[in-house]
UniProtKB/TrEMBL annotation:
Organism of provenance: Nonomuraea thailandensis
Entry keyword annotation includes Ubl conjugation: no
Keywords, comma-separated and alphabetical: Membrane, Transmembrane, Transmembrane helix
Protein name: ABC-2 type transport system permease protein
Source superkingdom: Bacteria
Listed transmembrane segments: 20-42, 81-100, 121-150, 156-176, 188-211, 231-252, 290-308, 337-357, 389-411, 417-442, 449-473, 493-513
Lineage: Bacteria, Bacillati, Actinomycetota, Actinomycetes, Streptosporangiales
Amino acid sequence: MAGTGVLVRLVLRRDRLWPALWVVLIAAFVYGTVSTIGTLMPTEEARREYAGKIAANPAVLLIQGPAYDLSVGAIAAQQRAAATMIFAALGSVLFLVRHTRSDEQAGRCDLIGAAPVGRHAPLTAALTVVLVADALLAVLITAVLAGAGMPFAGSLAWGLIAACGGWVAAGMAAVAVQVTPGARPAGLGALGLFFALYLLRGVSDVAAPWLGWAVPTGWLLRSRPFSGERWWAFALAAALAAVLVALAYRLAGRRDAGAGLLPERAGRVAAAAWLRTPLALAWRTQRATAVAWLVAAVLFGLALGFGGREAVKEFGASAGLAAWAARMGAEADPAQVFYGLVIYVFGAYTVSLYTVLAVSRLWQEETGGLAEAVLAGPTGRLRWAAGHLLVAVAVPAALLAVVGLLCGLGSGDVGGLLALTLPLLPAVWVVTGVTVCAYGLLGRAGAVAVWAVFGLVVALEFGWEIGLVTDAAFRLSPFAHVHYSALAEPGPATIAVLTVAAGVFTALGLTALGRRDIG
C-alpha cells in the first residue's frame, strides 16, 4: 500500500470539485424534498391521503417503495430516499472506474507504477476517496435534516441509506474493474447490477415481499427512517461492501495491469471483410456492451416470466391493487397490468438509458480522436454517425423483443406479452432521435441537454404517478403515449406519429452534424 497517501492527494488534485459538488447537490436535493413535503402536505390528514394513494399504486411502489409512517420525514424518505441511494451509487461507480481502470487504459497507471508505490495503491486511493465521500454525504444529510427539525435518528438513517448504497456500489465497481476487459464494461456492469437489484426490490414491494430481503437495496430501503429504524440493515450492507472490496483485492493480485480476468479475445492478423464499413466498426466498438445488455435482458425476461406467476397471484389478491388495476383499465386481468407495469419501467427507462449511452459513443469518439482518424479516410460524417445510430436503434428493439418473448414463454402468453413490449419501441426511438439531435446541434455540450431532457421525462412520470402533474403535461413525454395505463392505448396512428417524430429529430441532428466543425 506504499504511496497511497500521495495518490489520494493526486486523485483529489485532479477531481477536487466533483466529489464536493456531488455530496452538496445530493444533500440539497434531500433538503428540498423535506421542505416541499412540509409545504404541500402540512397536515397529517393530507399525508394520510397521499399514503393511501401510493399504497394502491404499484408504479410508485415499484420505483420508490412504500411509506412506513405519516410524519413529514417518513413521507419525504418514501419519495426520495431511493433516489438518494441511486445518486450516491452512480457517483461512486463513475468515480471509482475513472481513477482505476480508465487510468490503466490511458497509461497513467504505468507512470504511477514506475514510482515507489504499491501494486494496489491506485485502487486503495480511489476507494478511500469514494468511501470517505459517501461517509461525508451521510454526515451532511444527517445535519441538513436535523437542522430542518427532523428527528436525529431518522436523519441519520437516511444518511446511512445513501452512504451504504454508495459503499455497496463502490464494492461492485471494484470487483468489475478486475474482471472486465475495459473501463466502459466495468462501469456499465456495476451500474447494471445495482439497478437490477433495485428493480428486484421494486418487484418485492409490489407483489413478493420476501424478495426484498434477498438484495442489499431491499435491506437499505426497509431500514425505515423516521418510523422505527432498523439499524442492523446498515450493518448487513456495510458487511457486503467489505466482502466485495476484499474480493476485489484478491482478484487484483491475479490479473495483469491493463487487462481483466475476462481478457479480450485476440484479434485476427487481418480484418474480416465485414469490418470494412462504418456500421461494422460501430458494432465492433459497441458489441461488448450490447451483448452484456442482451444477457441482462435474457435473465430479466426469464426471471419475470417464470418467477412472476406467484407475484401475479398476490397482485390479484390485493383489494387495493385490484382497484388500482381497474383504474388502469385492466380490471379483468391482473397479470396483464402487473406485467405491463414492470415491462413499462424496463422499456421506458432502462432501454432508453441504453440508447442514450449508445449514441453517446459519438461524443466519445469525437473527443478521443477516433472520429478524426475515421473521417480522414473516404468515410463521410453521415456514414460514420449512421453506423452508431443503427446500433442505437436495433439493440433496443432486440432488448424489448427478448424480454417480451421470454416473459411470454414463462407466463404462457407470448402474444400478449409481445403486444405489451413492442409498442414501447417507437417511444425509445424518440429518445434516440432527441439524443442525435442534441449531438448534431450542440456537439459535446449536447450531453448536458440530453441528460436534462431525460431527467425531465423521469420527473414528469413521477409527478403524474403521484398526481402532481396533469395528463396534458405528462403527454409531453413520449412514454405517455405508450403508457401501461388507460391513459394511452397505442394504436397504429400513435406508433406512426412517434416513429415519424423520431425520424424528424434524427434528421435534424444528422443535418446539423454535416454542417458544424468536428472536435
